[in-house]
Amino acid sequence: MTLVFASPLLALWGALSSRPVRLGVIGVAFLGPIAALSAGLCLVNIFLLSLWIPDVLLHDHDASFELLRTERVGTETFSVFRTNGGAMTSFGIVVRRDRPLLPGVVWTSHACSCSPAFDVSLSRVDRSTIQCVFPSDRGLPPRSISVHDVAG
């Protein structure tokens, strides 16, 4: 991405350093507005990243992956997240399974996911199987996924 923003600036520098002055003037007239637009977009990009990154790193808040709830089943914890990719995508649901390995060490793995979806209900089918049921908001029957090898 930096190359995309920097290439008009490099071309402008090349036009300014050309020996025939006529070519340098034509190059500056053509590449000057493109380089200015590129530099402006680069500054806007840096500004937006400087607003978003501290919020994610310092406050542990990422609006694109929102924790809805956690459910404990046996010795495992299932975390339900809502995904939000922005204006052009639908909400989705991701369920992650956390298994304790040692005190303070947790193994996190993907249990199930569905998109588009707004919620999920987890129910225990038997000793080693969890059923993830995603209700439909369009009048369709709910979708269900079985998750096996659940610790009891």
Calculate the terminal CA-CA distance, rounded to whole Å: 48 Å
Summarize the biggest pleated sheet: 4 strands, antiparallel
Task: Classify the helix fraction into a percent range.
Answer: 25-40%
- Average pLDDT works out at 77
The radius of gyration computed from the alpha-carbon positions, rounded to a whole number of angstroms, is 26 Å
State the total count of DSSP E strands.
Answer: 7
Written as H for each helix and E for each strand, in order along the chain, the element string is HHEEEEEEE
Count of separate DSSP helical elements: 2
Strand order of the largest sheet: 1-2-3-4
Structural class: alpha+beta
Uncertain regions spanning at least 5 consecutive residues = none
Beta-strand residue fraction = 35-45%
Total domain count:
2
Describe the global form.
Answer: elongated
Overview of the structural elements:
It is a single chain. This protein has 152 residues and is of the alpha+beta class. It has 2 domains: 2-59, no CATH class; 65-148. It has helices spanning 2-16, 21-59; strands spanning 65-73, 76-83, 92-102, 105-114, 121-126, 129-134, 143-148. The longest helix is centred in the first third of the chain and has 39 residues, at 21-59. The mean pLDDT is 77.
Q: Keywords for this structure?
A:
3-stranded antiparallel β-sheet; elongated; 152 residues; alpha+beta; 4-stranded antiparallel β-sheet
Can you lay out the helices and strands and say which pair or pack?
Blueprint: H1 2-16, H2 21-59, E1 65-73, E2 76-83, E3 92-102, E4 105-114, E5 121-126, E6 129-134, E7 143-148
Antiparallel strand pairs: 1-2, 2-3, 3-4, 5-6, 6-7
Helix pairs in contact: 1-2
